[in-house]
Specification:
By secondary structure, this protein is α/β, with parallel strands linked by helices. It contains 15 helices and 22 strands. The protein starts with a strand and ends with a strand.
């Protein structure tokens, strides 16, 4: 089996994966800012990282050590995903100030909801950003576990794999003080900035060179926040602001402690990733994190640790479209994972979010979700129909699956291997079932809990559907029409229910199975 090659944002090429310790890989993922429920675009990025982590753990995955020697798995992956529970600007281009703070925006939104009587009852004080952060953290973890995110599952017994920014502010202050003492950061009145000109490689990750960033190119830096900066691209490490809702005692710069304030966004991950070491094997996040967040994080980490390498491989999945368009609440195509769970199997949601190659813009559609649900059902039937004995009938299927994932994590090709292989098997054996489960150990869909079905006297409502009284009434009318051999009426009711978005399938015992069309 060929070794894993992966596109590296830093090198701008597909590179052989080389790690410091092939038996113990380190992996850091930029997690959510918990001021609202995570949407499916967020989860596309998180699940791509989870898929990479699962593949690295697989016995089928081969990586190289730093000398180029190949090592086949299995291996341990130490995966950490942070929780950003400190408020930052709602517009990341305004990271130096001048925008609305995410946590304060959440407070405002929930206060309005409380006045309207629609607020979440578990949030007793919408003015308390910490209570809001805790509420949305728990909801994120619940959603992540339903989608099989391994780091969220591990956090139940090992909370250190999901560190929170608010628990690491002291470490951020120490790093800021260290950067200032080494000449990489400086104070201007109530703020501390990183000096981008002090780091020769600034811009290498994103391609944004300093000459392109003069004058706040791209809208990142506002004119009113330029006073005292050495370069327009210098970014915030600390802001003293006693009026801010979330604040801490300031760092000590040039022998003087700064007033209360809050850390900049980028410094958080530089500190929380240190639990894995000063140099890590993998760093991931959505493509919107490349600049400014990861560019700035890389600069301050390398300077603080006096190293040329912060992360060996930078992994950035691309954006998610919905029905061919950018997600937007105003367009009505904005979905949280939690909303989809109301009517769809989490396994189908996961498969739909991972089945497109991570470096392509995925297009999330209702039809695609139905297709993913059918694939899941086909795989489940394959396992259910397997005999109690017998070896795998095509042992090369696992090798083809590995070759697909080894080539820049090509999930579309890997899923195609599974579907072609299953279609070629007349009667699955126990060995075939074992082989499919091994492949699914990477994809992570069949191990997810199936939504409970609700059964009535007339039918079985599957996929998390609740028995709608109107639907039940029409099903009774259809059953009566069939008994009377009035097939025209029976078919008309089936078409009527299909127009309402329900698929009807007759099953044994005179009942029907009801699912989303």
């Amino acid at each position: 089996m060929s070794h894993l090659t992966l596109y590296n944002t830093l090198s701008k090429s597909k590179d052989p994966v080389r790690v410091a310790d092939p038996t113990n890989v380190t992996f850091y993922t930029c997690g959510p800012t918990v001021y609202d429920d995570a949407h499916i675009g967020n989860f596309r990025s998180f699940l791509a990282a989870d898929l990479l982590r699962r593949w690295l753990e697989s016995p089928l995955c081969t990586v190289q050590d730093l000398d180029g020697t190949e090592h086949q798995g299995p291996r341990t992956v130490r995966h950490v995903m942070n929780i950003t529970d400190v408020g930052h600007m709602t517009d990341d281009d305004q990271a130096d100030g001048g925008g609305d703070d995410k946590m304060q925006a959440a407070c405002k939104r929930l206060l309005e909801a409380k006045k309207a009587g629609t607020a979440h009852t578990s949030i007793t004080d919408p003015n308390d950003p910490r209570q809001i952060a805790e509420f949305y953290t728990q909801r994120f973890v619940e959603d992540a576990k339903k989608l099989g995110l391994k780091v969220a599952i591990e956090a139940e017994t090992n909370p250190s794999v999901m560190p929170r920014a608010t628990d690491n502010v002291d470490g951020m202050k120490r790093m800021i003080e260290d950067l200032a003492s080494k000449g990489f950061a400086y104070r201007v009145d109530d703020a501390v900035y990183f000096d981008v000109q002090s780091y020769d490689s600034y811009g290498q990750l994103s391609g944004n060179t300093l000459d392109k960033l003069k004058g706040g190119a791209g809208g990142r830096v506002q004119d009113e926040h330029q006073a005292g900066k050495r370069h327009p691209a210098d970014f915030l490490l600390w802001k003293s602001d006693p009026s801010h809702l979330m604040k801490w005692p300031g760092p000590t710069i040039d022998g003087q402690q700064m007033p209360e304030g809050y850390p900049g966004w980028h410094i958080e991950c530089s500190v929380m990733s240190k639990v894995l070491g000063e140099t890590i094997d993998f760093h991931s996040g959505g493509e919107d994190n490349i600049f400014p967040h990861h560019e700035c994080e890389r600069a301050q980490s390398c300077c603080a640790h006096s190293t040329d390498t912060f992360a060996r491989h930078w992994f950035h999945p691309r954006f998610l479209l919905v029905e061919g368009e950018k997600m937007s609440k105003s367009k009505g195509n904005f979905f949280t994972a939690r909303e989809l769970f109301e009517n769809h199997d989490p396994a189908a949601v996961r498969l739909e979010l991972i089945k497109t190659h991570y470096r392509a813009n995925a297009n999330f559609t209702e039809q695609g979700l139905k297709d993913s649900a059918r694939i899941i059902e086909r795989w489940r039937r394959f396992l259910d129909s397997a005999t109690d004995s017998g070896s795998a009938q095509d042992t090369e299927a696992a090798s083809r699956f590995a070759d697909a994932l080894g080539d820049d994590l090509n999930t579309a090709a890997a899923i195609g291997v599974i579907n072609s292989w299953i279609a070629s098997i007349q009667q699955p054996t126990a060995g075939d079932a074992t082989q499919l489960r091994a492949m699914d150990g990477v994809l992570g869909v069949l191990s997810l809990e199936k939504p409970k079905s609700a059964e009535t006297d007339i039918g079985l409502f599957t996929g998390g559907l609740e028995p709608d009284p109107t639907v039940v009434e029409r099903l009774v009318a259809r059953r009566d029409a069939k008994k009377a051999k009035d097939f025209a009426t029976s078919d008309a009711i089936r078409d009527e229910l299909a127009a309402m978005g329900y698929a009807i399938k007759d099953v044994a015992g005179g009942k029907v199975e009801v699912s989303r069309a």
